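Pasting two entries for a bug report.
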Amino acid sequence: MNLFARLFGSTGGAAGHSQLHDQSSRNASASQNATRRELLRVVLRDTLGENGIPAAWIGAEMLRASGQGREPGVHLRLLIRHWEPRLLPYTVALQNSLQGRLLAFDPTASGWFAGISWQYALEGEPVCPDMPAPSTWAVPAAGQAAPAPARPPADPRAELQRLFAARDAKLKRYADATGVPDTPPNFEATQPMFRPTEPAGL
């Protein structure tokens, strides 16, 4: 075998080895993703079953998710296929339950699970309510306390006067009880230490 044959033969062998390694890595990654997708399907099925929710109401799509500085993962998109208003207030609790079950099955899921999103995928035209009047959102829902009115900011001058008055009253009570003057000699009674201010041009 001449020099060129040996060179090309060696190069071809290295390239072939690299291609085999890349193919093996892709196969391993595909197998891992398939396992993770199947795990998510099982977790969703069990979570719905445990909470008595018909499996036909919520479907799922598994999407590939990639992020800078982390390995590619799987994002779970839950599809609401059945309109059931009673279920809507509990979607956050259902989501938390699903994520907790996933971590119980696979503690490493925090490294590859990229989160959950929701999508309406209703068949036909279910009877859904129209948007209410904009003022609806300013009124607390039944069973919810109305938000406390915002307290106006305290007037600094009045607050300072209140603090000084409370201090002077305390000194007076001490003087009445002990016979000691409420203000030391050569000191005037406490007064607010500020001056009226006027707006000035900048």
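Entry 2 (this is the one that rendered wrong in the viewer):
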Amino acid sequence: MRSAVLRALIYFDIFNYPLTASEITQFASLKITSLTQVEEALQELAEALLIFQFGEFYSLKNDIVWVERRKKGNTNAAAILPKALKRSKLIYKFPFVRSVNISGSLSKNYFDETTDFDFFIITAPNRIWITRMLLTLYKKIFLLNRRKYFCINYYISTEDLIIPDRNIFSAIEIITLKNQAGEDLYRQFIETNNWVDAYFPNFTPDYTHLDDPKRRFIKRQVEKILSGKAGDKIDNLCYAITLRFLKRKYRHLRTEEFNLNLRTKKQVSKHHPQGFQFKVLKAYEEKCRDFEQHHQYKLL
């Protein structure tokens, strides 16, 4: 139990983000039947000076500044969330968009001057690249390419809902998604990726119903026009254009890095050119190892 608690705290310490006991339960790798178990483990770890408590928050760092930072970020997130919902509804109006989900920092209830509105989109089959092209053009033309409140970095289609990167980073990103539109598809996505249970057995999906925006007349008509073989050809063209552009722009990346960080296939578009996932996974391994060495404590 103590190791499970520590691993949760170590992971979020990468982001200087203290956790509450209930959050630690959610992100623990061990099945927990009561919050009391976690609170007892936290008390033992605090008494041993392995962790530090600041009110309801627990941290590996003995510095309240990170708690204050978190509180401010949480307040910002609550204030900005209605704007994110409006952006989600806007995205849902685009042709072939079937589910819109907030990801990234905001999905974890944190927002500051360094973070963006990140979105995870599920589209109709074989229409990712038309959708992506339309949304990209909208951002470049109408938002002057500003990404602060309009950053869509992951598209998948209803044809293939599985996330192949089975690791703690991807699992956390999946269980913290905030579904904004397309609830039924979100349910299907979570059920398809039930491998996250191996990482977080205490995860309970939040299926709080949101009234899905209706598919407007224009959206229905555009989808009708771009259906069938004509739509297939246009989607293939958008895919080819985007792939050529990405390979030219990120030609400095090795093939393996490109395929992992910029997964570009007919049924998926992943845009993480900085390799953030792998930086986090490396940092997590290093922090676990450093913790064990510094405290002479073996993490299970």
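Dev reply: Rendering is fixed now. As a check, the viewer should reflect this: Residues 83-279 form one domain.
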